[in-house]
Structure formats: C-alpha cells, structure tokens
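Project outcomes to date are best conveyed with an example. Our students and postdoctoral researchers have been running inverse folding experiments weekly, and each run begins with a structure described purely in tokens. The record below, which covers 402 residues, was selected by the lab manager from last quarter's runs and is presented without edits.
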C-alpha cells in the first residue's frame, strides 16, 4: 500500500479534540481521501471509509461479508491482540453472519420489534420513565442522569422484553460495561462474558419450566434454536439493547444542555421530539468506531484496488457528518430532517431493535424536558467524563440539577 499515504498506523483514534465531534482527522479524510489505507493494531493492512454515499453503498454490497469482520479490531488495545471473537463468543451472534444464517436468526426476532409491538410497549416504557423521574425527585439534586435515569430505564425495558428478572440488572450492567471497555484486560472480558452467558442460561432454563410472555420464552420454545444459540442471540440483544439506548439518552441530554438554543426549541414545541431524536442519533453516532466488512473478492472502490480479505472499516460518525448529505452536518439542529442517517447501519444488518430505541428515546427526552423544566448541568461541561475508552460512546456520568 505504498502508493497511498497511511493516516492511521495503529488503528483508529478514539480520543477527541471536542467531546461531541469525531476526531478532526476523519473530516479531513472524507474531503480528500474517502477510502484510505489504515494499519490495524495487529499489523493487518486494511481500509477506512468516511464518505456517506460510499459507506451506504458498501453496507449493501453483497461482495462484502460480515463473517469474520472482528478478526482484526480497529482500536489499540490488548484485546485486539488476545481476544478471539469467533472462538470466545457463543453461537447466535447474527450481527457477524451472512445469509442464510443471518436471515434465519433475524426472522425469529423481527415480529418482536414491529411498530405494532412498539405501540403495545409504549405505556410500560412511559411508566418506567415516570418511575425513574420520581426516584430522582425523592433523591433530590444533584443526580447522575446516567445511573439515576438512563441506565436503569433502558435496562428495565430490555429486562421486560427478554423476561429477565429485575434483580439481575446490577449483575449484567457491570459485566456489559467490562465487555465494552477498550481497556478491559482479555481475562476480564472472558470473565464478564461467562457471567452474562451464565445468567442467560439460567433464565432460559427457567423459561422452559415456567413459560412467560417474553422474548426469551418465545425463543426457547420455538424449536428453531438450541440452547447455545439462544444464549448468543440473547447476549447480543441484552448488551446492545440497554447500552446503546442508555448512552444516547445521557449523551443526547448533555448535547442539548450544551446547546441552549436547541434545548429551547424542544421545550417550546414537544412535536419536534421525534425529529430531534433522529438528529441526535445522526449528530452523536455513538457507535463511534464504526462497523467492519470483509471483501470476498478482489475489487476496485472508486479507483482504489482492494484485495479479498482486507478489512474495510466503515466510519459511521464521519459518514453522518458528511456535508454532501447533511449540509451543516457538524452543527446540531433539532429541526433538521435527518432521515437517512446511518447510525442504525443500513441494509440487511440494519439494527433489528431500532424502533424500540427510537421509542425509548422519544419517551425519555420528553419525560425529562416535561418534568424538569430547569434541568441543567451540575458541573462545568468540560468536567463531564466522556466514554472515549468504550466501544459505545457517551458519558460515564452526567451530574444534573433542577
């Protein structure tokens, strides 16, 4: 790859110059070199793509595979060298599969995430949000929005959906955090993984003996998956289902509190919330490292020769800031029509739980703005600790007052 400059020689940077913006290097690449070479921390030579149209195109290109896409991890970490996802993760991780395997698993889940199902869940999610607000009021300011509202709300929703008893929330939240922390030692990752899969195995066995009206029961009694597959599917839903939404709730609130003019627009017109959710999803793009694909054949992308087996990293935060698709994309605008953002990916791997995430975010933001008209940061904005050491971006804590 000597014919082109290599801007990243040890994976992608995760530290940011400004907390709500991707590192500047990605915007520069998008303008000058939308597909650029990079060297992964293990020495693998691959590519990074930063242009919206090209990322969207490659997400549906059938010459690219999701299988084995985590063989070479993009972030500098001991885990990138010592953790074998294909060996250490249980089966059923359909996010990293191609059809027909991917299709078989996803088909089992799709009926549980329809708009009709979301309407049925709405009253329960509203009640959970109201309970969290009541708890915050009893505790009094200052509160940590992450641990007093966002995380318990999203964890309760996913527990209800899967059928996991509420008393296990603390157990899987701590282990999920270890799985997503880029600094977690490989042996701790394995330990956290075993803890969560052990919990899911226990719950699944109970569902066979005492069926309930929940997703784990439906999967366990479907006859379509074995016990190991059930645990793998549930692991993906559990960790992704509560971590992503919790971080969007907290980081989105932080972004709004930093932008009082945008916050005022939302407070003045609740009908803007649905569009504001899409804009916050676009603007923040909490899957801040991106997604990876593997070409199955030698090909050419915009005149650049790419060899089969070379990992291609699709940088979603940069794509979602592309001014060619979202003019003024580096600015938060809650009145923007941010339709078409790639935060939930695109194509067959588009997030199966995206409608649930949208519903939780709409209810969460609306509840906070309605119940706390004077919500504000309880510390200077520069003192809020950011999750740049996590695979899902956000804030570690968010002290607020009202």
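After processing, the design step wrote out the following sequence:
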């Amino acid at each position: 790859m000597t014919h082109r400059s290599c801007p990243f020689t040890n994976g992608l940077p995760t530290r940011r110059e400004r907390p709500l913006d991707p590192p500047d290097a990605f915007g520069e690449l998008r303008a000058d070199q939308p597909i650029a070479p990079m060297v992964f921390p293990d020495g693998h030579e691959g590519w990074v793509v930063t242009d919206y149209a090209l990322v969207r195109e490659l997400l549906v290109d059938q010459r690219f595979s999701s299988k084995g896409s985590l063989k070479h991890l993009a972030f500098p970490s001991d885990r990138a060298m010592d953790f074998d996802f294909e060996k250490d993760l249980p089966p059923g991780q359909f996010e990293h599969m191609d059809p027909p395997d991917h299709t078989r698993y996803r088909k089992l889940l799709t009926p549980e995430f329809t708009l009709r199902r979301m309407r049925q869940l709405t009253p329960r999610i509203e009640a959970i949000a109201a309970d969290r607000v009541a708890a915050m009021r009893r505790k009094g300011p200052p509160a940590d929005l992450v641990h007093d509202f966002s995380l318990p709300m999203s964890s309760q929703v996913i527990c209800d959906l899967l059928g996991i008893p509420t008393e296990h929330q603390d157990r899987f939240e701590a282990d999920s955090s270890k799985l997503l922390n880029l600094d977690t030692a490989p042996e701790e990752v394995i330990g956290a993984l075993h803890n969560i899969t052990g919990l899911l195995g226990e719950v699944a066995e109970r569902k066979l003996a005492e069926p309930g009206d929940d997703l784990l029961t439906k999967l366990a009694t479907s006859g379509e998956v074995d016990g190991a597959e059930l645990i793998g599917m549930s692991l993906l839903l559990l960790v992704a289902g509560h971590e992503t939404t919790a971080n969007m709730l907290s980081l989105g609130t932080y972004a709004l509190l930093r932008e009082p003019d945008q916050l005022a627009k939302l407070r003045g017109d609740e009908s803007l919330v649905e569009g504001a959710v899409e804009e916050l999803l676009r603007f923040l793009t909490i899957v801040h490292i991106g997604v990876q694909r593997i070409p199955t054949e030698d090909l050419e992308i915009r005149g650049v020769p790419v060899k089969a087996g070379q990992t291609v990293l699709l940088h979603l935060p940069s794509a979602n800031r592309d001014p060619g698709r979202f003019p003024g994309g580096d600015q938060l605008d809650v009145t923007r029509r941010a339709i078409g953002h790639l935060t939930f990916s695109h194509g067959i791997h588009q997030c199966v739980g995206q409608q649930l995430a949208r519903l939780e975010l709409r209810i969460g933001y609306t509840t906070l703005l309605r119940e706390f008209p004077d919500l504000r940061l309880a510390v200077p904005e520069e003192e809020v600790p950011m999750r740049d050491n996590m695979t899902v971006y956000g804030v570690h804590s968010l002290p607020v007052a009202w």
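Strands lie at 35-39, 45-49, 64-65, 143-144, 291-295, 299-301, 304-306, 312-314, 376-377, 399-401. The chain has one domain: 24-401. The training component of this project remains on track.
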